[in-house]
Design brief:
alpha/beta; Rossmann fold; 12 helices; His_Pase_clade-2; hydrolase; phosphatase activity
Length: 426
Protein backbone atom coordinates (compact mmCIF):
# COMPACT_ATOMS: atom_id res chain seq x y z
CA UNK A 1 0.00 0.00 0.00
CA UNK A 2 1.08 3.57 -0.64
CA UNK A 3 1.24 6.22 2.09
CA UNK A 4 -1.66 8.73 2.13
CA UNK A 5 -1.14 12.26 0.89
CA UNK A 6 -2.11 14.97 3.41
CA UNK A 7 -3.64 18.22 2.28
CA UNK A 8 -2.17 21.64 3.02
CA UNK A 9 -4.78 24.17 4.09
CA UNK A 10 -4.06 27.89 4.20
CA UNK A 11 -3.19 27.81 7.91
CA UNK A 12 -0.53 25.14 7.38
CA UNK A 13 0.85 27.02 4.40
CA UNK A 14 1.22 30.20 6.43
CA UNK A 15 2.98 28.35 9.27
CA UNK A 16 5.35 26.11 7.32
CA UNK A 17 6.00 28.50 4.43
CA UNK A 18 5.97 31.95 6.07
CA UNK A 19 6.65 35.18 4.20
CA UNK A 20 10.02 35.65 5.90
CA UNK A 21 11.37 32.49 4.24
CA UNK A 22 11.98 31.94 0.55
CA UNK A 23 11.86 28.38 -0.74
CA UNK A 24 14.94 27.85 -2.92
CA UNK A 25 15.18 24.14 -3.69
CA UNK A 26 13.22 20.92 -3.18
CA UNK A 27 14.82 17.46 -3.42
CA UNK A 28 12.56 14.39 -3.38
CA UNK A 29 13.83 10.83 -2.99
CA UNK A 30 11.13 8.21 -3.56
CA UNK A 31 10.62 4.49 -3.78
CA UNK A 32 9.04 3.24 -7.00
CA UNK A 33 5.31 2.54 -7.22
CA UNK A 34 3.45 -0.74 -6.74
CA UNK A 35 5.02 -3.60 -8.66
CA UNK A 36 4.78 -7.35 -9.08
CA UNK A 37 6.93 -9.66 -6.92
CA UNK A 38 10.54 -9.81 -8.07
CA UNK A 39 10.38 -13.61 -8.55
CA UNK A 40 7.76 -16.40 -8.46
CA UNK A 41 6.80 -17.58 -4.96
CA UNK A 42 3.75 -19.15 -3.28
CA UNK A 43 2.43 -20.05 -6.73
CA UNK A 44 0.12 -22.68 -5.26
CA UNK A 45 -1.90 -20.02 -3.42
CA UNK A 46 -1.15 -16.71 -5.21
CA UNK A 47 -1.34 -16.51 -9.04
CA UNK A 48 2.12 -16.03 -10.57
CA UNK A 49 0.95 -14.01 -13.61
CA UNK A 50 -0.91 -10.75 -13.05
CA UNK A 51 -2.84 -9.04 -15.83
CA UNK A 52 -2.09 -5.58 -14.44
CA UNK A 53 0.36 -4.06 -16.90
CA UNK A 54 -1.82 -2.86 -19.76
CA UNK A 55 -0.12 0.53 -19.94
CA UNK A 56 3.35 -0.92 -20.46
CA UNK A 57 4.51 -0.97 -24.06
CA UNK A 58 5.64 -4.28 -25.49
CA UNK A 59 9.39 -4.44 -24.99
CA UNK A 60 11.30 -3.57 -28.13
CA UNK A 61 14.91 -2.89 -28.95
CA UNK A 62 16.89 -1.69 -31.91
CA UNK A 63 19.75 -3.65 -33.36
CA UNK A 64 22.51 -1.75 -35.13
CA UNK A 65 23.32 -3.38 -38.47
CA UNK A 66 26.52 -2.77 -40.44
CA UNK A 67 26.32 -2.98 -44.24
CA UNK A 68 29.64 -2.90 -46.06
CA UNK A 69 30.08 -1.30 -49.44
CA UNK A 70 31.03 -4.16 -51.77
CA UNK A 71 33.35 -1.86 -53.72
CA UNK A 72 35.36 -0.85 -50.65
CA UNK A 73 34.97 -3.39 -47.86
CA UNK A 74 38.00 -2.16 -45.94
CA UNK A 75 36.90 1.45 -45.69
CA UNK A 76 34.99 1.90 -42.41
CA UNK A 77 33.76 5.30 -43.58
CA UNK A 78 31.52 3.55 -46.10
CA UNK A 79 29.71 1.47 -43.50
CA UNK A 80 25.97 2.15 -43.61
CA UNK A 81 23.89 2.00 -40.47
CA UNK A 82 20.29 0.86 -40.23
CA UNK A 83 17.96 -0.24 -37.48
CA UNK A 84 15.58 -3.15 -37.29
CA UNK A 85 12.90 -3.81 -34.68
CA UNK A 86 12.71 -7.01 -32.66
CA UNK A 87 10.06 -8.08 -30.18
CA UNK A 88 10.72 -10.29 -27.18
CA UNK A 89 8.30 -12.78 -25.69
CA UNK A 90 8.89 -14.59 -22.41
CA UNK A 91 8.77 -18.38 -22.55
CA UNK A 92 8.14 -20.22 -19.28
CA UNK A 93 6.10 -23.06 -17.84
CA UNK A 94 2.90 -21.01 -17.74
CA UNK A 95 0.41 -20.70 -20.56
CA UNK A 96 0.97 -17.92 -23.07
CA UNK A 97 0.34 -14.64 -21.26
CA UNK A 98 -2.34 -12.35 -22.56
CA UNK A 99 -1.66 -8.69 -23.44
CA UNK A 100 -1.19 -6.74 -20.24
CA UNK A 101 0.43 -9.60 -18.33
CA UNK A 102 3.25 -8.38 -16.09
CA UNK A 103 6.75 -9.74 -15.79
CA UNK A 104 8.38 -10.10 -12.38
CA UNK A 105 9.39 -6.86 -10.69
CA UNK A 106 7.38 -4.74 -13.15
CA UNK A 107 5.56 -1.53 -12.28
CA UNK A 108 1.83 -2.27 -12.50
CA UNK A 109 -1.02 -0.07 -13.68
CA UNK A 110 -1.81 0.59 -10.02
CA UNK A 111 1.82 1.60 -9.46
CA UNK A 112 1.64 3.98 -12.41
CA UNK A 113 -1.54 5.51 -11.03
CA UNK A 114 -0.09 5.99 -7.53
CA UNK A 115 3.04 7.64 -8.92
CA UNK A 116 0.90 10.00 -10.98
CA UNK A 117 -1.04 10.80 -7.81
CA UNK A 118 2.22 11.55 -6.00
CA UNK A 119 3.19 13.92 -8.80
CA UNK A 120 -0.23 15.58 -8.60
CA UNK A 121 0.25 15.96 -4.85
CA UNK A 122 3.54 17.79 -5.43
CA UNK A 123 1.86 19.94 -8.06
CA UNK A 124 -0.92 20.90 -5.65
CA UNK A 125 1.66 22.08 -3.10
CA UNK A 126 4.58 23.49 -5.08
CA UNK A 127 2.69 24.81 -8.13
CA UNK A 128 -0.84 25.65 -7.02
CA UNK A 129 -0.34 26.62 -3.37
CA UNK A 130 3.20 27.99 -3.18
CA UNK A 131 3.68 29.14 -6.80
CA UNK A 132 7.23 27.83 -6.41
CA UNK A 133 7.27 25.84 -9.65
CA UNK A 134 6.04 27.28 -12.93
CA UNK A 135 2.54 26.32 -13.99
CA UNK A 136 3.79 25.10 -17.37
CA UNK A 137 6.94 23.14 -18.11
CA UNK A 138 8.87 24.13 -21.20
CA UNK A 139 12.46 23.04 -20.49
CA UNK A 140 14.61 20.90 -18.21
CA UNK A 141 16.41 23.71 -16.39
CA UNK A 142 14.13 23.77 -13.34
CA UNK A 143 14.09 19.97 -12.94
CA UNK A 144 16.83 17.45 -12.22
CA UNK A 145 15.70 13.86 -12.68
CA UNK A 146 17.74 10.86 -11.54
CA UNK A 147 16.89 7.16 -11.37
CA UNK A 148 18.46 3.79 -10.87
CA UNK A 149 18.66 1.87 -14.11
CA UNK A 150 15.62 -0.33 -13.50
CA UNK A 151 12.45 -0.23 -15.59
CA UNK A 152 10.21 0.20 -12.52
CA UNK A 153 12.15 3.21 -11.20
CA UNK A 154 12.49 4.87 -14.61
CA UNK A 155 8.78 4.38 -15.31
CA UNK A 156 7.84 5.57 -11.82
CA UNK A 157 9.76 8.78 -12.37
CA UNK A 158 8.16 9.24 -15.75
CA UNK A 159 4.68 8.79 -14.28
CA UNK A 160 5.40 11.18 -11.43
CA UNK A 161 6.51 13.97 -13.74
CA UNK A 162 4.38 13.70 -16.88
CA UNK A 163 1.46 11.88 -15.26
CA UNK A 164 0.99 14.14 -12.24
CA UNK A 165 3.44 17.00 -11.75
CA UNK A 166 3.22 18.26 -15.33
CA UNK A 167 0.49 16.38 -17.24
CA UNK A 168 0.06 16.96 -20.97
CA UNK A 169 -1.90 20.23 -20.72
CA UNK A 170 0.99 21.82 -18.78
CA UNK A 171 3.94 20.95 -21.03
CA UNK A 172 4.82 21.31 -24.68
CA UNK A 173 4.32 18.40 -27.07
CA UNK A 174 8.04 18.41 -27.80
CA UNK A 175 9.12 18.10 -24.15
CA UNK A 176 11.37 15.10 -23.47
CA UNK A 177 12.30 13.88 -19.99
CA UNK A 178 16.03 14.13 -19.35
CA UNK A 179 16.69 11.37 -16.82
CA UNK A 180 20.17 10.78 -15.38
CA UNK A 181 21.28 7.23 -14.57
CA UNK A 182 24.50 5.59 -13.44
CA UNK A 183 26.18 2.33 -14.33
CA UNK A 184 25.31 -0.30 -11.73
CA UNK A 185 28.92 -0.46 -10.51
CA UNK A 186 28.88 3.27 -9.70
CA UNK A 187 25.29 3.48 -8.44
CA UNK A 188 24.87 5.45 -5.21
CA UNK A 189 21.09 5.26 -4.78
CA UNK A 190 21.43 1.86 -3.14
CA UNK A 191 24.19 -0.11 -1.43
CA UNK A 192 26.76 -1.90 -3.52
CA UNK A 193 27.57 -5.60 -3.18
CA UNK A 194 31.12 -4.59 -4.15
CA UNK A 195 31.56 -3.05 -0.68
CA UNK A 196 32.92 -6.07 1.20
CA UNK A 197 32.84 -4.43 4.62
CA UNK A 198 29.15 -3.55 4.22
CA UNK A 199 28.28 -7.06 3.04
CA UNK A 200 30.09 -8.48 6.09
CA UNK A 201 28.13 -6.22 8.46
CA UNK A 202 24.86 -7.17 6.76
CA UNK A 203 25.65 -10.88 7.17
CA UNK A 204 26.43 -10.32 10.86
CA UNK A 205 23.06 -8.65 11.43
CA UNK A 206 21.33 -11.44 9.49
CA UNK A 207 22.88 -14.01 11.86
CA UNK A 208 21.81 -11.89 14.83
CA UNK A 209 18.25 -11.81 13.46
CA UNK A 210 18.01 -15.62 13.39
CA UNK A 211 18.24 -15.80 17.18
CA UNK A 212 16.45 -12.53 17.81
CA UNK A 213 13.30 -13.65 15.98
CA UNK A 214 13.44 -17.39 16.71
CA UNK A 215 10.20 -17.52 18.71
CA UNK A 216 8.39 -15.22 16.27
CA UNK A 217 9.39 -17.42 13.34
CA UNK A 218 8.06 -20.49 15.12
CA UNK A 219 4.80 -18.63 15.76
CA UNK A 220 4.52 -17.79 12.05
CA UNK A 221 5.28 -21.40 11.10
CA UNK A 222 2.40 -22.59 13.29
CA UNK A 223 -0.02 -20.01 11.87
CA UNK A 224 0.93 -20.55 8.23
CA UNK A 225 1.28 -24.35 8.36
CA UNK A 226 -1.69 -24.94 6.00
CA UNK A 227 0.17 -23.24 3.14
CA UNK A 228 3.89 -23.10 4.11
CA UNK A 229 5.84 -25.97 5.69
CA UNK A 230 8.28 -23.83 7.63
CA UNK A 231 8.97 -20.11 7.94
CA UNK A 232 12.60 -19.10 8.37
CA UNK A 233 14.76 -16.22 7.32
CA UNK A 234 16.47 -18.54 4.83
CA UNK A 235 13.66 -20.99 4.04
CA UNK A 236 12.33 -21.51 0.53
CA UNK A 237 10.62 -19.14 0.11
CA UNK A 238 12.41 -17.02 2.69
CA UNK A 239 10.47 -14.87 5.12
CA UNK A 240 11.40 -11.76 3.14
CA UNK A 241 10.35 -13.48 -0.08
CA UNK A 242 6.98 -14.28 1.47
CA UNK A 243 6.68 -10.66 2.56
CA UNK A 244 7.56 -9.37 -0.91
CA UNK A 245 4.95 -11.53 -2.64
CA UNK A 246 2.16 -10.98 -0.12
CA UNK A 247 2.58 -7.20 0.19
CA UNK A 248 2.83 -6.82 -3.59
CA UNK A 249 -0.36 -8.86 -3.97
CA UNK A 250 -2.19 -6.81 -1.34
CA UNK A 251 -1.06 -3.54 -2.87
CA UNK A 252 -2.29 -4.64 -6.30
CA UNK A 253 -5.58 -6.05 -4.97
CA UNK A 254 -4.67 -9.65 -5.74
CA UNK A 255 -6.41 -12.18 -3.49
CA UNK A 256 -4.22 -13.73 -0.77
CA UNK A 257 -4.93 -16.73 1.52
CA UNK A 258 -7.00 -16.06 4.65
CA UNK A 259 -4.06 -17.16 6.80
CA UNK A 260 -2.35 -13.86 5.98
CA UNK A 261 -4.35 -11.78 8.41
CA UNK A 262 -3.41 -8.17 9.09
CA UNK A 263 -1.77 -9.28 12.33
CA UNK A 264 0.30 -11.95 10.59
CA UNK A 265 1.37 -9.63 7.75
CA UNK A 266 2.33 -6.95 10.28
CA UNK A 267 4.49 -9.47 12.17
CA UNK A 268 6.17 -10.54 8.91
CA UNK A 269 6.74 -6.86 8.13
CA UNK A 270 8.36 -6.27 11.53
CA UNK A 271 10.73 -9.24 11.22
CA UNK A 272 11.67 -8.60 7.57
CA UNK A 273 12.39 -4.97 8.33
CA UNK A 274 14.48 -5.94 11.33
CA UNK A 275 16.44 -8.51 9.35
CA UNK A 276 17.18 -6.19 6.42
CA UNK A 277 17.32 -2.72 7.91
CA UNK A 278 17.85 -2.82 11.68
CA UNK A 279 21.60 -2.69 11.16
CA UNK A 280 21.26 0.72 9.50
CA UNK A 281 19.33 1.95 12.54
CA UNK A 282 21.95 0.66 14.96
CA UNK A 283 25.19 1.30 13.09
CA UNK A 284 26.52 4.55 11.68
CA UNK A 285 29.15 2.63 9.71
CA UNK A 286 26.47 0.71 7.81
CA UNK A 287 24.63 3.93 6.95
CA UNK A 288 27.88 5.55 5.77
CA UNK A 289 28.70 2.65 3.47
CA UNK A 290 25.14 2.13 2.23
CA UNK A 291 23.97 5.66 1.45
CA UNK A 292 26.82 8.05 2.33
CA UNK A 293 27.89 8.62 -1.26
CA UNK A 294 24.36 9.63 -2.22
CA UNK A 295 24.15 11.99 0.76
CA UNK A 296 27.30 13.60 -0.61
CA UNK A 297 25.47 14.23 -3.90
CA UNK A 298 22.52 15.82 -2.08
CA UNK A 299 24.94 17.96 -0.09
CA UNK A 300 26.75 19.10 -3.24
CA UNK A 301 23.54 20.27 -4.92
CA UNK A 302 22.39 22.09 -1.77
CA UNK A 303 25.67 23.97 -1.45
CA UNK A 304 25.71 24.75 -5.16
CA UNK A 305 22.26 26.30 -4.82
CA UNK A 306 23.22 28.23 -1.68
CA UNK A 307 26.30 29.62 -3.41
CA UNK A 308 24.25 30.47 -6.52
CA UNK A 309 26.57 28.68 -8.93
CA UNK A 310 25.75 28.58 -12.61
CA UNK A 311 25.14 24.81 -12.56
CA UNK A 312 22.09 25.09 -10.29
CA UNK A 313 21.02 28.70 -10.84
CA UNK A 314 17.71 27.71 -12.47
CA UNK A 315 17.24 24.40 -10.62
CA UNK A 316 14.21 24.23 -8.32
CA UNK A 317 13.11 20.60 -8.09
CA UNK A 318 15.28 17.45 -8.03
CA UNK A 319 13.72 14.00 -8.02
CA UNK A 320 15.56 10.73 -7.33
CA UNK A 321 13.75 7.48 -8.15
CA UNK A 322 14.98 4.53 -6.10
CA UNK A 323 14.03 1.55 -3.98
CA UNK A 324 13.23 0.45 -0.45
CA UNK A 325 16.99 0.00 -0.04
CA UNK A 326 17.35 3.71 -0.90
CA UNK A 327 14.74 4.94 1.55
CA UNK A 328 15.55 2.72 4.57
CA UNK A 329 19.09 3.96 5.34
CA UNK A 330 18.00 7.54 4.64
CA UNK A 331 15.12 7.49 7.13
CA UNK A 332 17.41 5.99 9.76
CA UNK A 333 19.81 8.86 9.09
CA UNK A 334 17.02 11.39 9.61
CA UNK A 335 15.44 9.62 12.59
CA UNK A 336 12.24 8.58 10.79
CA UNK A 337 12.76 4.81 11.06
CA UNK A 338 9.56 3.20 12.36
CA UNK A 339 10.61 -0.49 12.23
CA UNK A 340 8.35 -1.08 9.23
CA UNK A 341 9.23 -1.59 5.56
CA UNK A 342 9.04 1.59 3.42
CA UNK A 343 5.79 1.43 1.47
CA UNK A 344 5.55 1.74 -2.29
CA UNK A 345 6.13 5.38 -3.39
CA UNK A 346 7.35 6.36 0.08
CA UNK A 347 9.24 9.62 -0.29
CA UNK A 348 11.69 11.77 1.61
CA UNK A 349 11.64 15.51 0.90
CA UNK A 350 14.39 18.03 1.61
CA UNK A 351 13.38 21.70 1.37
CA UNK A 352 16.01 24.46 1.29
CA UNK A 353 14.95 27.92 2.50
CA UNK A 354 16.65 31.29 2.58
CA UNK A 355 15.75 33.79 5.27
CA UNK A 356 14.68 37.28 4.21
CA UNK A 357 15.02 38.69 7.72
CA UNK A 358 18.76 39.33 8.06
CA UNK A 359 19.96 42.89 8.26
CA UNK A 360 22.53 44.37 5.92
CA UNK A 361 25.02 44.37 8.83
CA UNK A 362 24.51 40.60 9.28
CA UNK A 363 24.93 39.97 5.56
CA UNK A 364 28.20 41.86 5.58
CA UNK A 365 29.77 39.63 8.25
CA UNK A 366 28.21 36.24 7.49
CA UNK A 367 28.49 33.59 4.81
CA UNK A 368 25.69 32.53 2.49
CA UNK A 369 25.25 29.32 4.55
CA UNK A 370 24.31 31.25 7.70
CA UNK A 371 21.14 32.48 6.05
CA UNK A 372 19.71 29.09 5.01
CA UNK A 373 17.63 26.34 6.58
CA UNK A 374 16.67 22.77 5.69
CA UNK A 375 13.41 20.99 6.46
CA UNK A 376 13.07 17.21 6.07
CA UNK A 377 9.76 15.41 5.53
CA UNK A 378 9.03 11.69 5.30
CA UNK A 379 5.79 10.85 3.51
CA UNK A 380 4.89 14.49 4.19
CA UNK A 381 5.32 14.11 7.94
CA UNK A 382 7.48 17.02 9.04
CA UNK A 383 10.50 15.82 11.02
CA UNK A 384 12.26 17.50 13.89
CA UNK A 385 15.76 16.10 13.62
CA UNK A 386 17.50 15.44 16.97
CA UNK A 387 20.69 16.91 15.53
CA UNK A 388 18.91 20.26 15.14
CA UNK A 389 17.08 20.68 18.46
CA UNK A 390 19.61 22.62 20.54
CA UNK A 391 19.54 26.41 20.65
CA UNK A 392 21.15 27.90 17.58
CA UNK A 393 20.63 24.73 15.52
CA UNK A 394 17.16 25.60 14.21
CA UNK A 395 15.05 28.58 13.27
CA UNK A 396 13.74 30.42 16.37
CA UNK A 397 10.13 29.98 15.20
CA UNK A 398 10.23 26.38 14.00
CA UNK A 399 12.28 23.43 15.29
CA UNK A 400 11.74 21.55 12.03
CA UNK A 401 13.92 24.11 10.24
CA UNK A 402 17.51 23.02 10.75
CA UNK A 403 20.21 25.59 10.31
CA UNK A 404 22.19 24.62 7.25
CA UNK A 405 25.28 24.28 9.46
CA UNK A 406 23.56 21.77 11.78
CA UNK A 407 22.13 19.83 8.85
CA UNK A 408 25.47 19.62 7.07
CA UNK A 409 27.14 18.48 10.28
CA UNK A 410 24.69 15.56 10.44
CA UNK A 411 25.15 14.71 6.76
CA UNK A 412 28.94 15.02 6.88
CA UNK A 413 29.11 12.41 9.65
CA UNK A 414 27.49 9.96 7.21
CA UNK A 415 29.75 10.60 4.22
CA UNK A 416 32.76 8.27 3.86
CA UNK A 417 36.11 10.02 3.73
CA UNK A 418 37.53 7.24 1.55
CA UNK A 419 34.76 4.90 0.38
CA UNK A 420 37.05 2.38 -1.29
CA UNK A 421 39.29 2.10 1.76
CA UNK A 422 36.36 1.86 4.18
CA UNK A 423 34.80 -0.90 2.07
CA UNK A 424 37.81 -3.20 2.48
CA UNK A 425 37.03 -6.34 4.48
CA UNK A 426 38.17 -5.92 8.08
Amino acid sequence: MSPPFPSYDDEKIRFYYPDYLQLKLVQVIHRHGERTPVKPRLEHVIPPLWNLCHEAKEFQTSILLFHEDENNQNNSDNLKLSYDQFKYRRIDSHSSPSPGTCVFGQLTDIGRKSMSELGAHFRALYVDKLKFLDKNLSNNKSLFLRSTNYARTLESLQQLVIGGLYPSQYRSDSYVLNIHTRDLYYETLHQSAKCKRLMKLIRQFNEFSKSRYESDLQYLTDKLKPIINEVKLNSNPSLNGIFDTVTAAKANKISIPKEFTDEIVDKIDEISTGEWFYGFYETLEMRRLAIGRFLAELREIILSKVNNTSETKDLKFAIYSGHDSTIAPLITTFNAYNHRWPKFNSHLTLELFESKEKSSFFKLFSSAQDNHYIRVKYNDKILELPACQNDGQHHPNDKSLCTLKAFLSLVDSHIPKDYIQECLDK
